[in-house]
Amino acid sequence: MPYKKIWYIFIIKCCCFTTALAQNSVADSAIKKLELNEVIVCEHFLQQDDIFNFYRNNKSATTEEILLRMPGISLIRRGSYGMEPMLRGYSAGQINLTLDGMKIVGACTDKMDPVNIYVEPANLQSLQVATGASGSGMGSTLGGGINMALKEPEFLCNNKPYVGFNSGYNTVNRSTSNSLFLNLNNNKIAWRISGAYRKADDYKTGGNLIVPFSGYEKTNVATVIIWQVSEKHSLKADYLDDRGWNIGFPALTMDVGYAHATIASFTHTFQNDKSFFKEIKSKAYFNTIKHSMDDTRRPFVPMHMDMPGESKTMGYFSEFNIKKIQKHKLAGRVDASHSFTLAEMTMYPQNEPSMFMLTLPDNYRINTGVFLKDDIQIDSLQYLTASSRVDRMLSVMDSDFGKKQWSVFGTFPLQRVFYTSNFQLAYSRILSKSTSVKAGIGYAERAPTPNELYGYYLFNRLDNFDYIGNLLLEKEQAKQAEIELNIVQKRTLLQAVVYYHHINNYILGELNSSWVAMTIGARGVKSYTNLPFARIYGGDFTLSYLFNKHLEHISTAKITIGADSDGEALPQMPPLKCLHAFKFKKKGWFVQPEIEWTLPQYRNSASFGEMETNAYSIFNLRMGYKFNTRGHIVHFSTSVENITDHTYREHLDFSAVTRPGRSFIFNLSYSFHKP
To answer: The pTM is what?
Structure first.
């Protein structure tokens, strides 16, 4: 289907839907208002919640490092850049990873370009994490969703410019990190622009060993403009451009020579607290990702290859809140998107003609969905939350060349339609002045990804097998249960969560000994298949204690365990990981020591060739000083990470590549807004 035609249809739908609902009324920021049992991290909350003080105190931290402090989130590491989020043992197509509610599809079949790399702390407003079926607000999901919201321009009361910059340096990889922003506004229009530049050399592990091909370089520019048309109407336009060069992935056989993302959107917001539809936000968006894998910097390459990939996504959604009706508080979302992906490979054998192959043939997916949620206040002590989502997905392989490739395996349906549904029911009860409990059950489904359907000899560095898609895959289906305990006292906050998921038709690679590997050095060929079932269970724990107004403590712990229908451990399941931090602050100064440790991981997947991972513990120390005078805010901070220069790796680190050794980080930030 031609892109221009699809885009026109989305624009028309956007205008029609917004106009129709606006007659009854609407909203401002529906991403917040959906309230998907989420954890929201933003600048205002950071002042009160020490889980995220790492972000506030270490201004040179990347978005990935911020994500790592979130409950339930782990990171799959292939290099020091482009780490892929995992949510309670789920990753890739099993979770929703969105930007301002927009779907963005990676262009790399090796998952080197997760959505989080396109958001810098300089333009990050908030992170919203919803687990399990409760995360279906942005799309069908098993594991939940992570939504990253971009900063918006502020309407400052005196209409004066607001400007700031941040600069940091890290000794472990001689990296520099610089960013700046500018905010301008009058009574009707506000505009914000931010930019960031990062450059890093190869980092050193404990013992001062250099990890080759771990450096990177990138730029990021984001701009947002808001027009307050009237008291009830506003319009917003966003544009983000992210570019990267020579991005090393030491755990893989290739690096990224060049990557470019362009993300644009247009949003209409309407709000009227007195009408039936209190608020609504409608957004039309478009994004394109171009990504080129490169091995020209690698020595001793058996055969040079070029592996470019591309994705294009356009979509529309409307989120709304309805005026409270007796004990019911209703919210919802309708959305539609069209995603196109393509990946190629050209091989250049010595003294032979070049060879061409589509590792992911041209394909597109059209997704439409509806989400509804009802928060019910039974009485002053009891609450009930029910949410549901249904989706229709049409997946089509749209390449004659790709069809010829697939013909060697026989005749298969190249067009599939999937219907998925998600449902969640949660009951909350206040037991005492300081204690509450919540119990929830859910059902979730998700369709196979294009890689799982159409992938053609995709090399997986985790187990060293070539992977071939399966056009007959069925959707995954999960039954979920969760119990949460919360204790909030004057000085203490405790939250403990345990969960259990039973997943039918779990998608995993299965060895096919009749096929021959194409990648040099590959152990064989696997094809994606549906296992009868798998189980994933675990827990998250958070404890915060305030000794006095100067000294605080926080501890977090998380663990995930997974097994397939034969009892074998699922691959890439993180062991118990804990973080303990104390923070002392007085008269603008702060000092924050940290201890991070994990247990060894002995539950490994033999089918994937996983190795045991040793336990480790590392120590960090952060300190800084901040002062404010006549609108000038200066913040200097320094950190020492991995003080003992320990050599270690985490279980989710590909190819047993060790983590950075001792590093000294220096950071200076400045902002000014004339009073």
So the answer is: 0.89
Would you kindly state where each structural domain of the chain is located, as residue ranges? 3-160+185-619+646-652
Helix (H) / strand (E) element for 102: namely strand 102-103
pLDDT tens figures, 497-535: 999 999 999 999 999 988 998 888 899 999 999 999 999
Residue 54 and residue 354: Cα distance in Å, rounded? 49
3-class DSSP state of 12:
helix
Q: Which CATH class is domain 3-160+185-619+646-652?
A: mainly beta
The pLDDT tens digits of the residues spanning 14-71 come to: 444 344 434 433 333 332 333 333 444 443 333 334 455 445 555 656 788 788 888 8
Q: Under DSSP, is residue 64 helix (H, G, I), strand (E, B) or coil?
A: helix
Quick one: which of 270, 305, 353 has its CA closest to 110? 305
Cα first-last separation, the chain: 54
Q: 554-589 in b/e burial notation, b at 16+ Cβ within 10 A?
A: bbbbbbbbbbbeeebbbbbbbbbbbbebbbebeeee
Distance (Å, rounded) from C-alpha 10 to C-alpha 335? 10
Q: What CA–CA distance (Å, rounded) separates 455 from 527?
A: 9
446-477: per-residue pLDDT in tens? 999 999 999 999 999 989 999 999 999 999 99
